[in-house]
Model the fold of this input.
Amino acid sequence: MNVREEIKNTVKELESLKRVKERLEDLNTEIIQLEGKVAYLVKQVDKESMDIELLKKTGLKSLFFKVLGSKEEQLEKERQEYLEANLQYDEARKSLDLLLYEREILEEKIVALPGTEKKYAKLIVLREEEILKNDPVLANKIHGLDAQIEERQKMVFEIEEALEAGNDGLQLLEQILLKLQQAVQWGQWDMAGRQGQMSAQLKHRHIDQAKDLAYKAKISLTQFEKELRDVYGPKDYGLTVRIPTFSAFTDIFFDNLITDWIVQQKIHNTVNGVKGVSDRTQRLLVTLKGNLPSITYELDQLEMAREKLIKGKV
Done:
C-alpha cells in the first residue's frame, strides 16, 4: 500500500474516532444531567414513602377529613404518588445505566485516537517529502501556502499579545479610577470640615496609590502601544497616562479652601483623563477582538488547502 492509500485509510479512522470523541463529550453531559435527576428522584421516592408511613401513624382530625377526605383516600393518593415517583426513578436509573455502558465502550475506542493522530502526522510528512522531491509544481503551491500560513500565524500571535497587554493596562486604569474616586470622596469630607486632618491624609493616600498604579499602567500601555504597532503599523494611539503632582503637603498643613478646591479640581481632571485613556483602550481591544476571528478563519482555510494538496485531493 502506497502512502496516499495509507493516508486515505487513516483519515477514515480519524473521522470515525473524532465522531466517537464528540459523542463521548455529549454523553458525559447527558450522564451528569441524568445523575442529578436520579439523585432528585431518590429523594422523591423516600419522601413519598415517608408520607405514607406518617399517614398510617397519624390520627386525622375532623377538619383534615373534611378538606382532604378519608384516611383511606389519602393513603391511596400517597401510594399513587409513591408509585409514580418509583416508576420515574426506575426509568431514569435504567437510562443512566445504558449511558454508562455506552460511555465505557466509547472510552475503550477513544484510546486509539492519539496513536492514530501520530500515524496520520507521520504519513503527511512522508507524503510531503514525496511531493517536494518529485512534483516541483505542487511543491511551489505548498511553499506559497506555507508563506501565507506563516503570515496569518504571526498576525494571530501579535493580536493575542496585544490583547494581553491591553487587558493588563485596562485593569490598572480601573484601579487608578477607583483610587481617584476614593480620593474625591475623602476630599469632599475634607472641604466640608469633617474628620479634620484624617480625611486629608486619607485623600492623599489614595492619590499616592493612584500615582503608583499609574507608573505600572504606563509600562503596560506602552507595551500595548508597541504590540498595536506590530499589528497595524506605526500610529499614535494616545495612550500616555499622566498623573499630575498634587500639593499634599500644603493641603494637610494649611486649611485653605481655595487651595483645596484646586486640588479637588485636579483630581477631577485626572479622573476624566484616565477615563478617556480607558475608553480608547477598550475601543482598541474591541477592534482587536473583532479582527481575530476572520484571521483565524483564513488560517484554518489555508491549512486545510495545504493538507488537501498533500493528500492529493486537489
